[in-house]
Design goal:
Elements lengths: L1 H31 L17 H5 L2 H10 L22 H12 L27 E4 L4 E3 L6 E10 L4 E10 L5 E10 L13 E2 L1 H4 L2 H9 L3 E7 L5 E3 L4 E5 L2 E10 L6 E3 L1 E8 L5 E2 L1 E6 L13 E2 L3 E10 L4 E9 L4 E9 L5 E7 L10 E9 L4 E10 L14 E2 L12 E8 L11
Helix pairs in contact: 1-4, 3-4
Length: 431
């Protein structure tokens, strides 16, 4: 009887252990993979169900063991981030052991993404989705294109925003997007008038009139790049969506060989807690402050590896939540750090092997204080040689920065999302 009890206890323990392992496997895929590997996202296939995962188990094992996936390009020894999606050694071992033991299905449930979460990476469903009213057809003529969309909205009251996320039915065809929120309280202005979009290719002169008509102080401005997810803020921090206005989305579509339909917009997540501290966003470098001060001017001759720098001085005490480095196809390495007036070094971000396909709004675990008078140093290296597999030109050609931000040109940009510093911020979590 004693022997039976011991054996039974052993098997119960082993079953419970195996069940817990499968739950862990599902949680790992849900937290580290499924946010990109789902319909409409940039990843080439879905990993939202057991069947999705199992039919690619050999590939998954290979890319995990090699470190190719999940993609995380930031150097965690230089600065680690809250949204680090790389796998720990234990997570890798858990997945590989599960694959090696013939992927038992017990308790594996990736469909535990609840309440409409298949459409967002945020932990809950959006309170509002503002999107274009009908699909836009992106022409398959192998030409990049920039399209400006206008989305009017009117709600019953101002809302405090705790998170915002770019929405699209097909992120694979989007190079990047910038979007701004404009309050239009004047009821005499018809926010529903005019075209829903302007395509510069067919309406190049009108876009300036269109843009000027709606340009007014922005409530908030942000964007999306391949690989990034949502932007969120801790309690009491955020921005206010005024009850009447428009969203202006400038979408940079990649060159396509065949026509594809695109639906774009934004997911908004509201909070009942008032916004006590409004977030701000600043862009340094190309298309931002200090563009003329990039040294040397951003021009990369063919068959060279070349480094550029930019130094910008802060004017006030800032508490940084996010940093967003940006380059294009021939980017090789990106570094940003601050030197304070006291000569202390504040590490911001280092991408040792730049890859345009995998970018992110890197979120600090705690606010990073950058005192007034600090110098933000940016260092960007570009590889315009034939050895660069992502070089858009064969043979290499001169590449430089232009105002239209084409992917075949280049950019050297650091965007920072921050709030004015308050005492104790450096010890405060960003969640």
């Amino acid at each position: 009887m004693k022997y039976f009890f011991v054996v039974s206890t052993f098997f119960v323990f082993m079953y419970s252990f195996a069940q817990a392992q499968q739950l862990n496997v599902a949680a790992i895929f849900r937290n580290k993979c499924a946010s990109c590997h789902k319909p409409g996202e940039a990843a080439p296939f879905s990993l939202q169900t057991y069947d999705d995962v199992v039919k690619r188990k050999t590939l998954i094992k290979d890319v995990i063991q090699s470190g190719y996936m999940p993609p995380w390009k930031a150097d965690t020894h230089y600065q680690d981030f809250l949204n680090n999606r790389s796998l720990t050694a234990q997570e890798k071992e858990t997945i590989i052991n599960w694959i090696n033991t013939k992927t038992p299905k017990r308790a594996f449930n990736l469909t535990a993404i609840k309440n409409g979460q298949e459409k967002t990476a945020y932990p809950r469903s959006p309170d509002m989705t503002l999107k274009i009213s009908k699909p836009y057809v992106v022409k398959g003529n192998n030409q990049e294109r920039f399209v400006v969309f206008k989305i009017p909205y009117q709600i019953n009251a101002d809302k405090s925003v705790e998170a915002v996320e770019f929405f699209s039915n097909n992120k694979k065809i989007v190079h990047h997007i910038n979007y701004g929120f404009y309050a239009v309280p004047d009821s005499g202005v018809n926010i529903y008038a005019d075209d829903a979009y302007v395509d510069p290719e067919t309406d190049g002169t009108k876009i300036h009139q269109y843009d000027k008509y709606y340009r007014r102080p922005m409530t908030y401005y942000t964007g999306w790049i391949p690989g990034s997810t949502y932007e969120s803020y801790p309690p009491g921090i955020g921005w206010k969506l005024e009850k009447r206005g428009i969203v202006m989305l400038t979408v940079h579509y990649s060159a396509l060989a065949a026509d594809e339909e695109s639906v774009v917009g934004v997911n908004l997540f509201f909070t009942s807690k008032p916004v006590e501290r409004a977030v701000s966003i600043v862009s340094l470098g190309s298309q931002g402050f200090g563009e003329a001060d990039i040294t040397p001017p951003l021009l990369i001759e063919p068959n060279v590896v070349k480094t550029f720098t930019l130094d910008m001085k802060t004017t006030d005490d800032q508490s940084i939540m996010y940093v967003w480095p940006h380059m294009h196809y021939i980017g090789k390495e990106f570094t940003a750090y601050a030197i304070t007036p006291a000569k202390d070094t504040i590490r911001l971000v280092h991408i040792s092997e730049w890859d345009f396909r995998w970018q992110e709004l890197y979120k600090f675990k705690k606010f990073v204080k950058v005192p007034a008078g600090s110098i933000i140093h940016m260092i960007g290296t570009y590889d315009n040689t034939a050895k660069n597999p992502f070089n858009p030109n064969s043979p290499p050609q001169t590449i430089y920065s232009t105002q239209n931000m084409k992917a075949t040109d280049e950019m050297f940009t650091l965007i920072m999302i921050y709030v004015p510093y308050q005492s104790g911020d450096e010890n405060r979590a960003t969640e």
